[in-house]
Amino acid sequence: MNIHTHRKSISDNEWVLQSLRHAQALPAATGSRAYSVGIHPWDIHAINIDEALGQLDKMLNNPHVIALGESGLDKYAKAPLTLQTKAFSAQLELSVRKNIPVIIHAVKVNQELIAIKKDIPSSLPLIIHGFNGGAQLASSLVKAGFYLSLGDKLLRSQKLEDTLKTIGIQSVFLETDESDIAISKIYDYVSNLLKISNKYLVTHMVEKASKVLSLHKEFK
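and the corresponding structure tokens:
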């Protein structure tokens, strides 16, 4: 169960939610692969946002697209934060209208996200991918209603280890993002860290994803 990746190749037994940019053509889905599509904050400075939103609206109607994203806010991106916020808010409106979860790219904008979350229905799942913060921040985001997705940085970060030990796995997903590491290595690491069986961890993640992402039978 890999909640967020940009890799095109996967193993036969790996369930993947592959993230695409809004301008990418949607590949054929398989029984172990579905897609998320969104307008990335890195792209906003170079595109016509209204046209991109129209394209995204159409792509979200594809039954193989089960999440919007990655989308979000990034204080290091070229576009001004005001323009990013406008584009992100429009995408959140799309997600609410279509009742589809959101995979969030967030850099130095945690308080902004918490403020935005207050205007979003609590039933809409918002997943912050590539989370790399400490336990206090993680607890605040989880309390605000976000899910957090952790990647390969967990394998070399004492801070993330402490974060995971503090918040547990109830509001956590695991991902590879752009890394070439196998998702199984991250699962093995978390199993050992938390002293739980790998089978239990996988089952827990799949059941949570099935609920949060409303997976169709063919994707499970």
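(Above: one complete record from the training split.) Residues 61 and 178 are 26 Å apart (CA to CA).
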